[in-house]
Amino acid sequence: MTLRYYYDDAYRMSFQADVLERAEHDDQPALVLDGTYFYPTSGGQPFDLGSINGSNVVNVLVRPGDGAILHVLNKPIAAKRISAEIDWSRRFDHMQQHSGQHILSQAFLRALGAGTVSFHLGADTSTIDLDLTQMDEEGASSVERLANQIVWENRAIENRTVTRQEAMEIPMRKKPPFEGDSLRLVMIADFDVSACGGTHVARTGEVGLIKIIGWERRRNQIRAEFVCGSRALLDYRVKNQVVRNLSAVFTTGYWELESSVERQIDETSELRRQLRRCRKTLIDYQVADILNEAEGIEHDRPIVKVFTDVTTKELRIIANQLIAEKQIVSLLASVGDKTSLVFARNEDSWGDMNALIKDAFILLGSGSGGGSPTFAQGSCDVKEISKVNDALNTLRLQL
Hey, what CATH class is 296-398 in? Predict the structure, then answer.
């Protein structure tokens, strides 16, 4: 069994130890030390990073079966006595987030009566799953105020290992299943007592700031997302820059941004409605022009038309209007970033549109799509209008 020194001193950044065993994990070399300050993944908290004798520590985990801690390395080490360095920025970040979670969980319990079901410390944000079915802004704000009040009071955070009997007598936020003869408690002065094996700061002030950045309902629970300390600062910096950029775009103060955005949305919606009306009118004119041009076309002779400013949806509308007006076959295309094809006929006309569009893809050298004997559509990457027009006219002569 590896001695877990991080239980007693989470601030240690370097140490020496003896190698007890050399092993492998996922085809990478690993060491078992007689004692370590590296925290292994457990309890919702990720592992520490760092180096051992110049080799990078890429993973730290508890080996199933014997509980030994594996230090997985990027290259093997032959020495029996090693010197290790812990990535302090990552360690302290995890200490801030995990300590903040303890404070936040107790704040949720006191302010909303919501117990913590689980906790996950992520790379950018952390989450707490709560036995709560709904939460609003007022509730989240009350939790956030209480949590940060505890931070500002800079209360002591102590670690204490107790016996099974002592644990039964100590009021805890949540009593865990008891395994072994002792239990490690993390105690925030006059506020929270929890069983935990993670790394924590010595005083609540080191958490810096606790910010709830969002929440969502997941089945019968609420998942709250939060950041603490340096992550909260980064979150504020990024969002503040977004607000400043938007303020510059709308040439207004941040306090007027919401109304400016709402006004812009309303104006954009109205412009879209106007554009749809104009496009509908344009389509009606285009259909009328095509039908006028088709007056002299023989019965059942296909109409070929290549557009450059029509969407695929509009192309379908034009095709349906054409075959509704006259007993004709319409071979339509719209050339843009890609070429869309729509072939259509009414029930009284003849020709297999599905087979015809397959022939079009052969002539154009690429494409995909299909449909029925009366209606087919597809697209290809050809962008030359003349090539598309030649292909459609070739098909037209085949009917």
Answer: alpha beta
Multiple choice CATH, 3-86, 3.30.1440.10, 2.20.25.10, 2.40.30.130, 3.80.10.10: 2.40.30.130
The per-residue pLDDT for range 84-102, each reduced to its tens digit, is 999 999 999 999 999 999 9
Tokens found for residue 293: 């041009």
- Within 8 A by CB and 6+ apart from 167, the residues are 175, 178, 183, 185, 195
> Quick one: how many helices (H) and strands (E) in the chain?
8, 20
Domain spans of the chain, in order of start: 3-86, 92-246, 296-398
Are 328 and 348 a contacting pair, CB within 8 Å? Answer: no
Q: For residue 340, what are its two tokens?
A: 């869309």
CATH architecture of 92-246: 2-Layer Sandwich (3.30)
The Cα-based distances of 147 to 91, 142, 228, 361 in angstroms read 22, 9, 11, 65
| Contact in structure between 311 and 276 (CB atoms under 8 Å) | no
Encode pLDDT of 34-87 as tens digits.
Answer: 999 999 999 889 999 999 999 999 999 999 988 899 999 999 999 999 999 999
